[in-house]
Amino acid sequence: MSHDHGLPPKSSVSRWFLTTNHKDIGVLYLITALFFLVFGGVLALLFRLELITPGADLLGQMGYNQAVSTHGLLMVFWFISPFAFGFANYLVPLQIGADDLAFPRLNALSYWLYLFSGLLMGVSFFQGTTFAGGWTMYAPLNTPAYIPGEGLGATSVVLALIMFTAAVTLGSVNFLTTMYRMRAEGLRMRDIPIFSLSINLTVWMMLFAFAALLAALMILASDHILGTTYFQYSIDGTTMATDADNPGASLLWAHLFWFFGHPEVYIVFFPALGVMAECFQTFTGRRLVGRKWFIISMVLVAIQSFVVWMHHMFLTGINLPIKTIFMATTIGISLPFDLMVFSLIYTMAKGRVRFTTPFLFSLGALILFIIGGITGVFLGAIVLDYQFRGTYWVVAHFHYVMVAGATALFGGLYYWYPKITGKMYNERLGQIQFGVYFLGFNLLYFPMFIAWETPRRVFVYPESLQIWHSMATVGGFILGASFLLMFYNLFVSLWRGEDAGDNPWAYATSAEWAVSSPPPLENFPGVPSYATGKLEFLDDETVAERTERASGAGHGHAATDGGTAADGGAVTTRAAATATAMEPAHETAGEEHASHASFWPFLVSLGGFVTFLGLSGVRTGSVVYLSMAAIGGLVTFGSLFGMTREPFHAPEMAIAERWPFSSVEKMKLGMWTFLASDIVLFGAFIGSYAFVRVAYGWTAWHHDLIPAEHVTMPGLINTYLLLTSSFLVVLAMVAAERESKRGTVAALVGTFALGVGFLINKGLEWQHLFHIHSEAFPNGWNLSTNIASSTFYLTTGLHGAHVTIGLIICAYMAVRAWNGAYQGDDRAIEYFGLYWHFVDIVWLFLFPLFYIL
Amino acid sequence: MPSFVLSHTAAVFPLHGGGVRAPSEVFAQIFEVFLLLGTAVGVVVVAYTMYHALKYRDDGGADPYADKVERPQMGEMPTGGSGGRKVFYSFSISAIIVVSLIAWTYSQLLYIEQGPDPAQTDALEIDVEGFRFGWEFAYPNNHTTNTLYVPQDRVVRLQVTSRDVFHNFGIPELRVKTDAIPGQYTSAWFTANETGTYEAKCYELCGSGHSLMIAEVRVLPQDEYESWYNGTEGSTGSGNQTAANGTETATESADLAAPTASAAPAATAGGVGA
């Protein structure tokens, strides 16, 4: 099977740059995440050393702030979730019976964007100072005005986070499409193993939560680079609270951040919960008690996670009714976890509990989580929360929760290591590591509860608490040392370990254990099916038979050559999503071998890295930074184009369970999910506008901040232009269906022309507003003039960027249509149309908000 | 356990000098109950977990439940195990404990939120403005200081804001804390029953000097406070104060719109008391 997939052997370095296989990428994720664990961990050890005595004698004041801030960012973003997604990449396709993820190149792109975003984070340390405003990045401390020096490092961190978010969004689209389109026959959504289910819910939360974060980060990056003033409450230099230019600035960030930040807690914890459930089932030899309720609990938490964010803001002056509501939702969201905990406990009853390393870590994680949960209930009582706010109680609590999650994931590493490597590690050493780890963990975090009166992120604390802080520091080093044991054990076992066999664990049930260790490139010896209620591998004949039977149901499409799309260097990631969602799909069901290699994802990400590094310094006007931005943009653009032109085969499964999206084609489902996150992105932008405007005073806003020259007419004309262009896309589809080449080309060119007209009109409008000379606005009305101009230019600018990307795709499609593409198969045009209509609908919201109200 | 809770609720309103229950007492009481109950629940649940893990451990011998339970098979469709009822019982108990605990604290929250009845207490109103890296306190006569002087046994209402970045003002021993947000006002109140010197700290990372952003808080006997306050009269004040001597009641928490200009602190940094 290993011929003609174009992938070098694992021993070859080039394989790891080329691979699009989910297992290889899973391994890359795991190793990279462990690297960032060490990175963030060393930073933690540095500031724990600092905290042995009160006073900043080791790192200095800013050094200390940088260490705590980047420790948080690295652990939350670059370690824990990607570590979980290493397992998700490796195991979800295996557990649900798929060959790979739905969009393998997109998956590789996610990984490389993740790696390069982390490298950009690393580079920020060398640009003077890196970000020092805490992982929560509260405004306005996160704006250049309050960042010492040039602040380029902080800008790089913001851009790195944007790049990371792009990786996450692409990953979410990919996983959702995979899980809804590629399950083995007979496997309903509720039947997939609990780890895969936890990933499914995690990516749903990611899709929406990270879109809100993306909005926050794009706005922040714009404040850094373009000079908008969203997070600056004082623009003209006066600092009186009574005369603020943008009184909503600080709270806007808090809302955006926590709207993301609270689901993020569950995004981090759910995969760990999934691992715990898997390990409990296997190592107790029992099925998960109350599995159905366990799943329902997780679904409830996933939904409710979006309505608890204000419990991070109880002291910001929100009124009592809102506090009460958020107190109730917060308590409400804790209860499903009680059920899940008890479900795990009772799963042990009448079991055959074996204290293997993975089980020890899972059980340890459960106990730590129980402590984290109980101390969290304290925070649910608002009177207590007020006093715990900003103290070590919070620090201790969330480390007990989040690092409990990490504990379970380390259990997962020991659980699946034999599957991934084919080798067994030294069990005794693993158990010893658990002992050291558990001791170090509790010695590190438990004293923080006792020393809870210490404010967070300070290096000065009362002498009386020194004993507890010293203890924590010692615990930190013990915890760190335990990882040396783990790395040693797992590294040496690659060579010295005994062969693990297909399934080293009694009572393991999920499909990854039914194949060899490591599994073959295309995962299964035949087509996996649960149609009989038990896993079977069907041979080609049976598959052919069943496909024929099911063909009436619309499976197994004819070959599509729906190649379209390219990029727009400016908003590379958005374009990447669009481009790949439309990658040529030669679906000759199983006939051709799937492709597994592409160099483009690496190149696109490298280009993105250089672009962002350049962007971090463009405000200095430095030639080096400017040329990096330009060159990086070219590389990104070029490689996205290369990626679109590359023939890459990712066949759809001949037979698969596809509820509830059996009638939605793979690309279309990908596009839908992507647009869903885009809706949240625009929603967050529009919400931000409404928030700062209400904070300023809805009517005073118009009177004080907007020049008379800002008239309705250009917006009205643009509304007509866009609506007409949407109509033309529909005509292009009709023409393609009727196989009228001229009609298709004409309609696409018409769409393109109207879109260009939109941009020109907007350009003229902006040009005019930039240079007005009125009494109220003697220096024009530009991005930095006031908060109204910032919201206007950035929000409509984001929309304009969407239009530009659409136009590039449109031009590309027009050329292809001229060469005869799409005739009789209008699906590619339909996907583009979905995007284009969406962009139009967004405008229908923006026009009244920014021109009429 | 319930009797324990009851014995505490009976002691909810002990009156102190000044007739006002201090936030620090409210906090101490709730915290104590939570600590005791939390520890108890934690010990029980963790012990219960360990009991299960150890009782059902595989000792290498034959499966004692071989004829009672069916073990999972490779490749089976995932299903749930038996024993769901016990999960629900345990869950219900935990839910009752959590919900009743939080519900109990809610009445205390109302007290903290609304404060003691303003008609009965002659509250002292002080504006607090955070800046990098210190605090400025403005008294009703517009006098400003960097040390907070307050009289013993009198309700002090704080209107807190910031002139630069997001801070958080807290006096840990007096259990008062609120965010200091540029462009916004938040309010909080406390009373100090004991004279002495306390510390106000910043609880939100605000830059290089965050760790050192500490202000002194002096709780003086009422007469000493009065004489200190009278000595400040007219020293920096503009004289057209409408909110003199704290008779004006604070507006609800943080209004997005700023309060009247007369209540705004003088913008001069530092102050006589510093």
Can you characterise this structure?
The complex is a heterodimer of chains A (853) and B (274). Chain A contains 24 helices and 4 strands. By secondary structure, chain A is an all-alpha fold. Among the domains of chain A are: 25-235 and 247-265 and 525-696, no CATH class; 700-853, Four Helix Bundle (Hemerythrin (Met), subunit A), CATH 1.20.120. In chain A, a hairpin with a 6-residue loop joins strand 3 and strand 4 (536-538). Chain A is globular. Chain B is an alpha+beta fold and 274 residues long. Helices cover 30% and strands 20% of the residues of chain B. Chain B is built from 4 helices and 10 strands; from the N terminus they run H-H-H-E-E-E-E-E-E-E-E-E-E-H. In chain B, the strands form 2 sheets. A 5-stranded mixed beta sheet of chain B has the order 3-2-1-5-8, with no helix packed on it. A 5-stranded mixed beta sheet of chain B has the order 4-10-9-6-7, with helices on one face. In chain B, helix 2 (23-55) runs antiparallel to helix 3. Chain B is elongated. The chains are: A mainly alpha (853), B alpha+beta (274). Chains A and B meet through helix 3, helix 7, helix 8, helix 9 and helix 10 of A and helix 2, helix 3 and strand 7 of B. Chain A: Residues 550-567 have a biased composition (Low complexity). Chain A: Residues 546-567 are annotated as: Disordered. Chain A: It is a multi-pass membrane protein.
